[in-house]
Task: inverse folding
């Protein structure tokens, strides 16, 4: 830790980029959508979920769509 140097961990790849056939972003896939929501029902940031920018915006769009369809709650009280 001398001179402000801090070893960094290995860069984690986005799981949607790594295996696009296994994970499909769809508003009807409620189990996948809940992986990206925190305990209060808010959408987690890309740094926490380790997704790339493109897939994070797709996830956010599909979560908002599933909220409109009442598959995922807006808030968890």
Result:
């Amino acid at each position: 830790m001398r001179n402000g140097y801090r070893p960094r961990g290995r860069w984690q790849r986005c799981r949607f980029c790594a295996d696009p056939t296994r994970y499909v972003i769809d508003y009807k896939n409620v189990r996948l959508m809940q992986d990206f929501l925190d305990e209060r029902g808010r959408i987690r940031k890309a740094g926490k979920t380790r997704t790339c920018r493109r897939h994070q915006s797709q996830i956010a769009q599909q979560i908002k769509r599933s909220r409109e369809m009442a598959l995922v709650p807006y808030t968890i009280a």
Remarks:
- The domain at 11-68 is CATH 4.10.640.10 (30s Ribosomal Protein S18).
